[in-house]
Fold each of these.
Amino acid sequence: MKQILRNIFHSPRFVVGFVIFCIVLLLSFYPMVSIFTPMEIVGSGFHAPGTYVNIKSTIQSRSEELKYVGAAGLSNQFTAEELGKMQEWLVKYGGIDQAVVDEAAENDNAFLELWLSTYSDDVQYKATQAYKREMQKYNKQILRITATDSLEIGEGDSTITVKSNQFVNVKNISNRVTLPLGTDNFGADVLTKLTSAIGVSLKMGVMAGAIATAIGLTIGLLAGFLGGWVDNTLTFFTNLFTVIPSFVILVLIANSISQAGRSPAMVSLIIGITAWPWTARSVRSQVISLRNRDHVNLSKLSGHSTARIIVQDVLPYILSYVIMALILQIGSGILGEAQLSMLGLGPSTTTTATLGLMMNWANTFSAAQNGQWWAFVPVVLAITLISYSMNLMNTGLDQVFNPQLRD
Amino acid sequence: MSEVRERKDYTNGPLCLSGRGVTRIFGHGEKANVAVDHVDFDFHEGEFVSIVGESGSGKTTLSKMLLGLLPISEGEILFQGKVRDISTRAKKAEYWKGIQAIFQDPFASYNIFHKIDSVLLDCINMRGGKNLPYEKKVEMMTEACSFVNLKFAELTNKYPFELSGGQMQRLMIARIFLLKPKILLADEPTSMVDACSRATILDMLLNLRDEIGMTIIFITHDIGLAYYISDTVYIMEHGKFVEYGKADEVILNPKAPYTKRLISDVPKIHEEWDLSTVELTDDY
């Protein structure tokens, strides 16, 4: 046993596949340490990868908080002539009474409030370009001082006040969030969702693969060892399932089950019971070559029961092959789930994400057309890496167990 | 093998295993292939019978039918005077207490995943010794191993691949020693081991026969060996027995052309059959 394991881990292909698989497996534990739950809505809609600050607790909005103007007041920022031009604009183009403007001009805060609520660069009025530019310049200046003077940053006790001539260290913003892979159409963090989906998809793949291998192994062992009419019957059904494309059966079964009934477990069961035929066929042919071996005959002569002979004298000889088949079945189980989900026949649940469902959502919300790559490229990459690692492990094992392929 | 073994005449003892019109056909219709074609035989208690024939003559098929591992297409086999009944598993298990086998390839005869002890323990269990204390079982296994010049203490807890081919085949004989069946079917037990081990193994088979009065059905393609060792020889060609009788009669005065050819195929054969050369010349 130790020797076999050593041989396996000397196969470079297996080791590379195993390492990739372990990395993917480790990723699936990320949701445990993530600050979000997989389905939590973080923002609204797609956000590109990056670091974001949440408006709620970082910057108090301008319109509510206009206690900014420093000791010197507006006269420190604008000349009297400039202030006069702005008052003139408010009367001429803003449609404000001269009396109201004059009154507001007495108080810096009131004037700014009036200016901000009336003027906008978008307002259409007849004037020279130069005049418009000048007004835009004043507006920009006002916006700058309103936006930067005395911002409240942080929450509760950690609030700091930032003056217009200060910088804020990003670290001091308590509620910033880093979204390494952005958010998807639901506004959920893609990284958390993806890693949890990897976990779910792996579980589904293992379950589907285990079911398919168990059915295929049982049928293959019985058909191969017992022979006769048992073999004929079982081979008939195996051929039947092989001839009809299993994906069609998969789609039909998945479609016939109600939307609510399609839990991840149910979908992996469906994949499992359609994927067994080739395992059954290859196990059967291996068993046929084993059943006439002398050690099997000797075991019969020693009076052992058929069940015991199958389990102890036949199964161990094909176990390495069965493990290889299982690995491939797990890989194709994950792909099968992705295929079904892309067609909208995958697990229908709002509480769990799977790799296929993430692809389906990205497709439904036109992520590809809008260039929102972060919603589907990582998912595709995850699926590719999983099946690639499975295939590598399989060929690595093949190299170890099949002496003809040894270098 | 230097000592000359005294030859008792076992060919007139009570019948042990007989066959009437035993036939085996593989396949159906046009593809039907008659592997064993209506053969009759009578094996007596304690008799050393050789079935000689080329590859593909149906020897192994016949041996599988005798062992009950392969169903018979036609005819019947009589075991100790009664028609053999192996319709249920219990009856088969009972039948296999009376007939056992040693196969050609010792390397393929063991389950490579089981330790050697399990092969011998199975035999003790089969003989109804399941509830014996372990020390008693070890004693029985040690005795069986020493019968074939093996030391049980050196073999216990080992896996089959740690043994040589000759050791494996001798262990198979130890197995027979424990089981003490009425009939032993030896399907070319010496063809995969070296000449030296072959002599030892044949010697052990003869000892077994003398000790427990076992009938030995020896299947071989080597007519020289068959002459040296057996009481009775059956020559098989294309599924039929073309000639049978006492070893001396068949081989010294062959009647069937096939027998003559088989004899002429033995290398370095003189017109006058020289017994002393058989041992030396049948290395191939």
Amino acid sequence: MRIIGLIIILLVLISGCAPSKPRPAEKELRPSLMVRPNIRMMREPQYKLKLGVVSMRDQRLSNFFGESDNFFRESVIQGLSQSIYLSLKRSHLFEETKRINIDMPDRMTRAELRKLATQNNVDVIFVSDIVVFNLLRKSLMDGDALEVKMGGQSDGDVVFNDFQLSVNYQLIGQLIYAKSGAILWAENVKRKKSVLGEDGTLSVNRLGLISQEVIKDTMVDMITLIKSTAVGVK
Amino acid sequence: MNRLLTLVVFFICSNAFADDDAFFHAFSQQISFKEAPSFKNTFSKSGVSIGAEILPLSEHTRLFGAEFDDDGIVLLMAITNDTRYRLLISGRDVKVRGTNSKQIGIVKFSNAMDLIDPSDANSVGKSLFTGYLKVFSLGIMSLAQGDTEDQVRRTFLRQSLMTKSFKHSILEPGDTQLGIVIFDRENWNKLANKSLFLSVQNLKRLAYLDLKLPLKNVKEEKNWYEF
């Protein structure tokens, strides 16, 4: 009987501290994906051309977490598309950067692209696909419960973290010269940001912070790649 | 006290769950690599090859932890780029078309997840339920993490599906992309003389190449269905 009693107490104790999974916060409390770009501006544009940035195409396998995509103030496509536009504008890679608010079809011929560019008075179109944007929650099993000294605590404090929460972001971007259909740049850019936690939950602030950091870092990578690997216009 | 208990639980159940469970094992298993021309059923056009076959049932368990149920048709497909150009593969736009001009797309990720039941003890095999201690410690672990054992398995299944599915990606010259695609059996059965369709984009100049792979020679192990 004592053993059964002990087991019950043990279960109650553990269930009392059982964490819950990350869930979308109330709408007004959700973090935003629209971040101030952390891009160093070029003095002279790399291309003396006008750039049009269309909305991203969703090519993800799954939603942000589980079956839910409602973790942020705006939709994932809207937020990430805006962050790309702001980063390209801020980079000053092109003489002028403007947002083209259309849903890009999966397939667009050269003639259709040229028409779109003419309608919007731009020379180059930036097309991008989100391949991955999701939250992964991994329990650190197999004795992996890490010992780390957390910032802000006194020296020598050791915290046992049972979970790793990561936001993964991967996109494929293309810069297409509308006149000829030549692709000036096309690359896969991906980043991951992880935090450790004692439980599996993720506060709104932490979610906002790691999501925004991963977006900023991805944008910095993307702009750096364009600067260094994009071809010129003949 | 709570941390100590959690540690004890981790220690006990690391063997109980992680070492034995088929879903956990499947997470670290990879698809055996082969190029598209090595498939029995293959098609080439302008230096781009595409191949597909039904994923054998033994591979379901090895790669995902259990067999997908009969509502899904699981194809293993590959595309090999033997051109000088980089290609953009529209992994989410894989279609199967019939001669009756109907077509179907791949099932949604959440629906694909539902095709495997993590609580099906038979599908998991005998490994997980080998002793009271293991079942008991697994229960404690689940409570400690706020998850049931099914949810832990679903996490592994989700990650296995994400890493082993055919993806939207850039394919470099000489490279091969390999992955699974799942179709709904009911819609699949409505199509006559099926062909697999995939479109790739050239990343030098905006142009597309349509690939069509007839699925005549592809047969299922259990003869649930013949193409």
